[in-house]
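Chain A, query sequence.
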Amino acid sequence: MKFNNLGINNSIFNHFIREIRDVKIQNDSLRFRRNIERIGEIFAYEISKKMDYENKDITTPLGISSESLMTEAPVLATILRAGLPLHQGLLNYFDRSDNTFISAYRKHKKGSDFVIKIEYMASPSLEAKTVILCDPMLASGSSMVLAMEALLSKGNPKHIHIVVIIASSEGIQYLKENSPVKNWTLWVGAEDEEMTAQSYIVPGLGDAGDLAFGEKE
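Chain A, predicted structure.
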C-alpha cells in the first residue's frame, strides 16, 4: 500500500479544498460540484504519472514526433451518488476509460448504528486492469472496503488507486488493516483527525452527496 496526500504541498489544489469546506461557499451546489470536479482532474494528472508509458511516433503536418504515451486507460469506478462529480473530473482526463458504478447505502438499525450495504454494480471485466476507485469522503472506511470487495467479483485488478478528497485518520487505518487487495495506492486531499459517532468527519465538510445533489429523505 502506498499513500499520497496532495494537500500537504502548497498548490491551487488547497484553494479548491478550502471552497468545498467553506460554509459560505459550499451551499452553491453548482460551484461545489465544479470544485469537486476540478479536484478530480488534479488527482487524475498526478495518478497519470504512475501509469505505464511507451514511445510512439506521431505524424504532424511537418514531420514525425516521438511522444511518450500511456499504454492503457484505467477503469474508473465510483460509489453513487456522492462520487459522481469526482468521477467526472477523473473522466475529463482519462477520457478513453471504461467505467464502473457501485451503489451503496447505509442501512440504519436502532439508535445511531448502521451497516453499509452494496446494492448493485455495473462494471466491465477488471481482470489485470488498473482501477481508480473514487469517493469524496473516507470516514469509517467500511464502505470503501466493501466497494473493493465488489470490484474483485469482476476480476483481479493489476492495481487499484483509491481517491478520496477528505479522509479520517481512523478510516485510513481501517483501510490499511482490512483492504482485500495487496496492490493499491491511497490518494487523499486532506486528512482529518476526528469523526463523530455517526461517522461524519470533523471538521470535514458535511454530506458531500447532499451538497452536490440536494438533500434526500
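The domain at 2-53+70-213 is CATH 3.40.50.2020 (Rossmann fold). The longest helix spans residues 29-48.
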